[in-house]
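Exercise 7. Given the encoded structure of a 171-residue chain, write a plausible sequence.
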């Protein structure tokens, strides 16, 4: 398994963890560890965790002799950006983000557009973006953090009618 897949396995496993953190020894057995269905050599896992911690994607701590890892905000953003929601993972709900942010808030508007692109949304019209990823709550948090709630509408719908312009670009 290559480094990228190990990183993906670790971050996705942490994202799916019930409490948001994992004790590493609960996944160990005879020289290997199991993460997100991958059987990894412990040395590969150790290196991946070191890199993820160094790069700020996870926090590592020791509690009662157990190594505990937890996803950071940067790690959550990575998962949101790279997790595959197509095919069997897609819930059939479209997420539309519609906004009309005033020119005096151009930097905030550009930040919102950049984040939408990072999260896999495509531009349907100048200030209308659409995506498949279940990120409505994350989007609402971002909009609140940016202070533009009064200019942004986030809509979730399974009905897009017969219009296929944006559905083709999200395949």
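Solution.
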């Amino acid at each position: 398994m290559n480094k990228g897949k190990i990183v993906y396995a670790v971050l996705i496993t942490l994202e799916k963890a019930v409490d948001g953190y994992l004790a590493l020894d609960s996944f160990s057995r005879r020289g290997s560890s199991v993460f997100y269905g991958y059987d990894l050599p412990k040395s590969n896992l150790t290196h991946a965790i070191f890199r993820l911690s160094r790069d700020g994607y996870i926090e590592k701590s020791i509690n009662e002799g157990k190594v505990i890892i937890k996803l950071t905000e940067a790690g959550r953003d990575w998962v949101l950006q790279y997790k595959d929601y197509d095919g069997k993972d897609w819930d059939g709900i479209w997420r539309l983000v519609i906004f009309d942010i005033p020119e005096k808030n151009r930097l905030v508007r550009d930040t919102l557009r950049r984040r939408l692109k990072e999260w896999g949304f495509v531009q349907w019209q100048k200030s209308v973006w659409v995506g498949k990823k279940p990120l409505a709550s994350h989007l609402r948090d971002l909009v609140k953090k940016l202070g533009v709630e009064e200019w942004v509408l986030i809509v979730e719908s399974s009905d897009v009618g017969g219009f296929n312009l944006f559905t083709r670009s999200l395949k």
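Remark. The CA atoms of residues 57 and 78 lie 8 Å apart. Students should compare their own answers with the one above.
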